[in-house]
Amino acid sequence: MKRRKAFTLIEILLVIGIIVLLAGAIIVAINPGRQFAKARNTQRTTDVAAILSGIVQNMTENQGRWNCTTSVYYATSLPASTATIVSVAEADNTQINLSCLVPNILPKLPVDPSLPANSTTTGYTLRYETSSGRITVCAPSAELDETICTVR
Per residue in 93-141, pLDDT tens? Predict the structure, then answer.
C-alpha cells in the first residue's frame, strides 16, 4: 500500500493560527485609526493654509484692505475676536462668511473632514489682530492632540 503524504488537520489549524497571530500583530503595529486621524489632520493643515492664502489674496487685490461683499458683519474688516468661518449669512458677530472667495480665489470653501461636505459651517476659525495685522486661521477639531493654526 502506498501512503499519500498530506497535511493533518492539526497542522493546518496550527498554520492558520500562526497566520492570524501575525496578521493581528501587523494591524496593531500599523494602527489604522491613528493613520486616518493623521490623514484628516493633513487635510486640515492644507485647508487652513488655503483659506489664509485666499484672505491674503483678497486683501492684496483690495490695496491691503479686506473686502468681502457677501459678508454682513465684516464687510470691510476681519473679526477681532475668534469667529467661525461659514458659507451662509452670519448669525451674529461670532461667524464670518468667506464665500466671497469662491470661485475667483478658491474653487470651493474648504470644510473640516469630520463634517459633511455640504455643511454650512467649515469647522475652521479666523481671528484678526488689529494691532499687529496678524491673521490666524485654525482647525479646532484637530485630532491626536495637535494644534493646527496658520498665521500670517
Answer: 889 889 889 889 999 999 999 999 889 999 999 999 988 989 999 999 9
**What is the C-alpha to C-alpha distance for residues 152 and 133, in angstroms, rounded to an integer?**
8
Q: How many CA atoms lie within 13 A of 123 on its CB side?
A: 22
Q: State pTM to two decimals.
A: 0.81
Q: Where are the domains of the chain?
A: 35-151
> What is the rounded CA–CA span in Å between residue 109 and residue 123?
11
Q: What is the DSSP secondary structure assignment for residue 9, as one 8-state letter?
A: H
Question: Which of the 8 DSSP states describes residue 11?
Answer: H
Pairing of strands 134-139, 148-151: antiparallel
Sheet holding 121-129, edge to edge: 95-97, 83-86, 121-129, 134-139, 148-151
